[in-house]
Amino acid sequence: MRKRRPTDKDHLRESRVFRNRSLLAAALILLMAGGLVGRLFYLQVVKHDVFTTRSDNNRMRVEPLPPRRGLIYDRNGKLLAENRPTYNLTIVRERVDDLDETLERLVQILGLPEDEVATFKERSRQRQRPYQPALLMSDLTQDQIARLAVNRYLLSGVEVEAQLVRYYPDPIVMSHVLGYVGRINADELADLDPGNYAGTHFIGKTGVEYTYEGQLHGKAGLRKVETNARGRVLRELDRQPPVPGKDVTLTIDSRLQHMAYNLLDGRRGAIVAIQPKTGDILAMVSAPGFDINKFVTGISYDDYQGLQQDPDLPLYNRAARGQYPPGSTVKPFEALASLQNGVVKPNDIIYDPGYFKLPNDDRRYHNWLRWGHGRVDLERALEVSNNTYFYTMAYRLGIDRLSSFMHEFGFGEVTSLDVQGASAGLMPSREWKREKYNQAWFPGETLSAGIGQGYFMATPLQLAAATATLANHGHWVRPHLAEDIGEEAVKPPFADTKPDVKVDQDRWWQDVFKGMEAVISGPEGTARKAGVGLQYDMAAKTGTAQVFSLGQNQKYDADELEERLRDHALFIGFAPVEDPQIAIAMIVENAGGGISELGRELTDAWVLHDGKLDDTLPTTINEEVESLDGD
Amino acid sequence: MAIDFQRTAPRPAGARVGRKRSIWLRLHLDPWLLSILLLLVSFGLVVLYSASGMSESTTVAQAIRMVLAFAGAIVIAQLTPSTLRRLTPLAYGVGLLMLIAVEIMGDIGMGAQRWLEIGPLRFQPSELMKIAMPMMLAAYLHRRPLPPSWRDLVVCAVIIALPVLLIARQPDLGTSMLVTCAAVFVILLAGLSWRFILALAVMAGGAAPLLWFNMHDYQRQRVLTFLNPESDPLGAGWNIIQSETAIGSGGLEGKGWGLGTQSQLEFLPERHTDFIVAVLGEEFGLIGMATILVLYLLLISRGLVMANNAQDTYGRLLAGSIVLTFFIYVFVNIGMVTGILPVVGVPLPLVSYGGTSSVTLMAGFGILMSIHTHRRLLKH
């Protein structure tokens, strides 16, 4: 090849090469521009709808307007559950100049330990979009709010936000009636209407809060707003105001509730009081109670463990769920069953040698008084709580008739209208035993059932309901906790009310009542000590339930064991007999006996209106509520 | 040269025609190029007014810059290509020295350093290199027989590598790639053999992993984000998701001037600088995007015609490189905003807010006009 010198340039060829190359470049440019147009066509025409939606989602935000939760009052208008503002600390990262420095400063200002900085940093990331406030801390104290306000100029991007949170002024005594609200969990979320609960953080978990969740919650509203990228609301496009939840007025009289709680005096037990005519539950106490306020914003692990492992089981609603052998308190109902079924007449005398024997069986079923009560008619049988008489009745009735009559009084069934988690207890029957144990019914078991032992289980609420029905001459009104929901009264007749208990002769009611009056007023009455100076007629029945075994988790402790092996004491009663205003049932665990006086105190307070009730309330439960406008 | 003369001169009426068009020729301006530029810049200002949130001060400031840039272009157009060629080594040398100065300053100050401050002036030497680089290569190849020999290519490689490495170290990957592009275009237009181009392409492919390992973390992040913007929708992916949303929601006709919600409500980041085309796409739709693309293509066509009419190697190669690089700007910017290219800091030429790049670009068009309008001076 010829060696080319620098000046040896072929201009024609150069120019031709350039022309070709630039033509090629032009073609490539057209191709690439075509690619851009294709991409633009894809974005702007093909995917236009997708991006329009995305753009609208960017700028338009539907903000839920959560409804105010309804308040809960007692029958006298005393506030039992309210909504209080609490203050949360939030941060918008984009508005913070130096995140680390700000967080360190915050922790210092709030007086928190150093390692909270890491927690705060983690929390500041938890959000869905830029400029969205992230929650750093909830439930600020007044002191912390004040300190934040003073240092506000140092803390750009940090805000204090107010939120309404449930507060119970009377948290322990009312614990099992009200239940509590708590943060909505994943399971609950799955069952909720997401639209209605979009802005709601709390939901009723137990008690009245749970039963009347639908009414208390109200209906969420919403507003559609246009925001800029910083999340600032520029204008409101649309608004549907929320419908606040309905206030619920309870049938509970908090004075009576307090009195009942105080009467138990720290012992484990339950008291239920019902107004027979209306079915109003005047008091429903399960002791010990617990502080329901702790559950609202989330109870600490230690606190919860403490409650769970407490041997007194404070979380357990004894009144509605506690299943106890009703003992002798079933005798008035059984007496009525015997009369109705014609197995005895009121004046028939049964001789009690101190025991009962089944035919062809040598086993003796003892009366509680070893040497017997001698000649006993129905009235005396109730007065002295004679077992032999009722063994005889049970034997004559047989389990089938006994069981079906007891069912009429609601044993073995849930009869209450709105008590959350109420248990059905257990009224044993031949069929039940066949199904449960695949065994035949033994006659001896009928005798046990006849004195409220054996398989027979009832809750204090059931006993109170049965007593109220008895006081009503068999007329059923479902016991209920709600008196008014919003403006609407909760009034009988209620759906699914049990048919009234019918007996052939009306005076049989009086015969049973006479026996029950003798319990408290008669010379041999088992509760005669409680009847001294009684100013009205009262019908009552005492009972004891044997405690036969220890729970598995209970620790062995000699003193404790002895106490916990004592019998449970039961008491039912109503007054005045002619015009019953209150029916009560109570149980005190391991009391041994002697709780009739407590029943008398309750009926005295309610029937005589002697002013004692008003002394029972603590005076400082209504603290001042801070105004939301403070910030 | 004689051949060139014969190609352009044979028309007997040439002188007369020349006299007729002499206003433009004497002013050393190209009316076609200027009108297209004027249309583009005006459209750009209209978009900028909206993109800046109806900020008159921003728009006026940009308009003033554009007037100055036009003035600069007109001044440069008065210089003859041979003057430009003589000044070339000086421009390249000064540019290189300033890049070294930046490098030293960058060692003193921490992190990325792209600016050189001389008194109150801030100057970005890499910007000068965008013009000086193709000038230097064109000037070198101007004296060499073409297509370039192996020896020429080695010299070219050195000319390219020095500034490009310095710019890449700043680090400014976007600019270093654009400068490389400008250089490569010169060599390609000079008639680099296809075998060699193929070999280069293979080498570039092989070097890609090498590049990856030498990238800074934020540069890698950009590439990763490009591959999957949804991986970090609030952080690195935010820009691209929002710009696609803006453009896509614009549809065929757009939401109307100043009515783009993505732009006006500030969901779109850097809306008046690198992402301004998303504002255009949102408010003027596909029609607006097509309009600006057509304007760009007209500008490029006119530029290529002018390059082909250039009378010497220097002018041809320089003009061709300037025009092709200009297209790369357009393509990279729109490609990045529409999500088909990774996010690199390349503004939309003559539309994005900002002075430096506009001045450089207009200087390029000034050179183009100089080359085009001084043809007859080459006759003797």
UniProtKB/TrEMBL annotation, chain A:
Gene3D superfamilies: DD-peptidase/beta-lactamase superfamily (3.40.710.10), Penicillin-binding protein 2a (Domain 2) (3.90.1310.10), Penicillin-binding protein 2a, domain 3 (3.30.1390.30). It is found in: Cell inner membrane; Cell membrane; Membrane. InterPro entries: Beta-lactam/transpept, Beta-lactam/transpept-like, PBP_dimer, PBP_dimer_sf, PCN-bd_Tpept, Penicillin-binding_protein_2. Residues 65-237 form the Penicillin-binding protein dimerisation domain. It holds the Pfam family PBP_dimer. The active site is at S328. Pathway: Cell wall biogenesis; peptidoglycan biosynthesis. It is a single-pass membrane protein. Its main location: membrane. Keywords: Carboxypeptidase, Cell inner membrane, Cell membrane, Cell shape, Cell wall biogenesis/degradation, Hydrolase, Membrane, Peptidoglycan synthesis, Protease, Transmembrane, Transmembrane helix. The chain crosses the membrane at residues 21-42. Catalyzes cross-linking of the peptidoglycan cell wall. This is Peptidoglycan D,D-transpeptidase MrdA. It comes from Salinicola rhizosphaerae. The gene is pbpA.
TrEMBL record, chain B:
It catalyses: [GlcNAc-(1->4)-Mur2Ac(oyl-L-Ala-gamma-D-Glu-L-Lys-D-Ala-D-Ala)](n)-di-trans,octa-cis-undecaprenyl diphosphate + beta-D-GlcNAc-(1->4)-Mur2Ac(oyl-L-Ala-gamma-D-Glu-L-Lys-D-Ala-D-Ala)-di-trans,octa-cis-undecaprenyl diphosphate = [GlcNAc-(1->4)-Mur2Ac(oyl-L-Ala-gamma-D-Glu-L-Lys-D-Ala-D-Ala)](n+1)-di-trans,octa-cis-undecaprenyl diphosphate + di-trans,octa-cis-undecaprenyl diphosphate + H(+). It is a multi-pass membrane protein. Keywords: Cell inner membrane, Cell membrane, Cell shape, Cell wall biogenesis/degradation, Glycosyltransferase, Membrane, Peptidoglycan synthesis, Transferase, Transmembrane, Transmembrane helix. It holds the Pfam family FTSW_RODA_SPOVE. Pathway: Cell wall biogenesis; peptidoglycan biosynthesis. InterPro entries: Cell_cycle_FtsW-rel_CS (IPR018365), FtsW/RodA (IPR001182), RodA/MrdB (IPR011923). It is an enzyme of class 2 (transferase). Its EC number is 2.4.99.28. The chain crosses the membrane at residues 32-51, 63-84, 90-112, 150-167, 284-305, 317-344, 350-371. It is found in: Cell inner membrane; Membrane. Peptidoglycan polymerase that is essential for cell wall elongation. Belongs to the SEDS family. MrdB/RodA subfamily. This is Peptidoglycan glycosyltransferase MrdB. It comes from Salinicola rhizosphaerae.
